[in-house]
Amino acid sequence: MEMSNFTLFDPRCRAEAPFAIDVIMQLDIFGIVLFSVLTLMATVSMLVFIEECIYIYKKVPPNKKSVIIWVTGAAPVIATMSCLGMWVPRATMFTDMTSATYFAVVVFKFLILMIEEVGGDNAFLRRSENKSFKISTGPCCCCCPCLPNVPITRRSLFILKLGSYQFALLKLVLTILSIVLWSNGNFSLAEVSSTGAAIWINSFIGVLTIIALWPVAIMFMHVREALRTLKMVPKYAMYQLVLILSQLQTAVINILAMNGTIACTPPYTSQARGYLMSQQLLIVEMFIITLVTRVLYRRQYDPIPDLDDAEETKTVLTSMKVVDIA
């Protein structure tokens, strides 16, 4: 209790985040080793991503190159931004915004990836003729099983794409707006009052995020069986894990820091220490996800067999069995 009172009234706990030189000067042996190992992890994550980009450029069909590079780059980019924020605490707002903006694009690209794995828009519509989307799924309508299925048409496919694309576009616009307001002194992540711009912008981003995740979940529920041989289920799991760790975990830690649950340890304020803990966790987590993602996406990208061809093959095999029995 005395320590809590000390940190509460310590003027250094009410100051801004420390400069990079202050972080370096206060590191002890354990801190040096910890920061060095985490920096190495972030560097290895980016090197693995660069190597994967070279592989994708040489081995992957042109229609899938960009989407796979965007999706596989989520974990390395977040790890790199977290490493930069760890060394330069005052840049945390910008590194977090960069990571969040990149992942907003990844949400849209993952939807496109699932469609391209089927063969593109035309192939998807041909395979899904006379079928429908099940829209009673998370994160919006998982508790509404009574919702009717939506027929799969070019229009409904466009609406799904638009639902995810709006997040990629508006997230970038809102990030630029936040930086402009911050430069004018009207935006602060620490200000959670109803009169502050941060609470309204972040709330709006939260709504956009939920709307953008819904089309991806709808598409995954529709194609997961057809793309099971392409490891789409574990790919989707990695995508969801990056989402939970980079968004939900970070939000929980930041809320605890702003409430004072995470103690101030000068030169770190409570909020800066919360950011530091989040960044260190993310570097380790994204490093592991980068290695797993490399295994999942490193394969031969052959088109999946057409449904008509598959049915014809099945008919021929059945006829051969009947002849053998006769």
Layout of secondary structure:
Layout: H1 2-9, H2 20-25, H3 29-59, H4 62-72, H5 74-87, H6 92-118, H7 121-127, E1 132-133, E2 150-151, H8 154-183, H9 197-223, H10 232-258, H11 270-297, H12 307-325
Antiparallel strand pairs: 1-2
Explain what this protein looks like in three dimensions.
The protein is mainly α. It has helices spanning 2-9, 20-25, 29-59, 62-72, 74-87, 92-118, 121-127, 154-183, 197-223, 232-258, 270-297, 307-325, and strands at 132-133, 150-151. The protein has a two-stranded antiparallel sheet with strand order 1-2. Helix 3 packs antiparallel against helix 4 and helix 3 (29-59) runs parallel beside helix 11. It is globular, with a radius of gyration of 24 Å.
Low-pLDDT segments, ≥5 res: 1-9, 307-326
Adjacency order of strands in the biggest sheet: 1-2
Amino- and carboxy-terminal Cα gap: 88 Å
Largest sheet: 2 strands, antiparallel
Q: Helix tally?
A: 12
Percent in strands: under 5%
Which percent range fits the helix content?
over 70%
Mean pLDDT, as a whole number?
82
Query: What is Rg?
Result: 24 Å
Judging from the principal axes of the Cα atoms, what is the shape?
globular
Written as H for each helix and E for each strand, in order along the chain, the element string is HHHHHHHEEHHHHH
Number of strands: 2
Class by alpha and beta content: mainly alpha
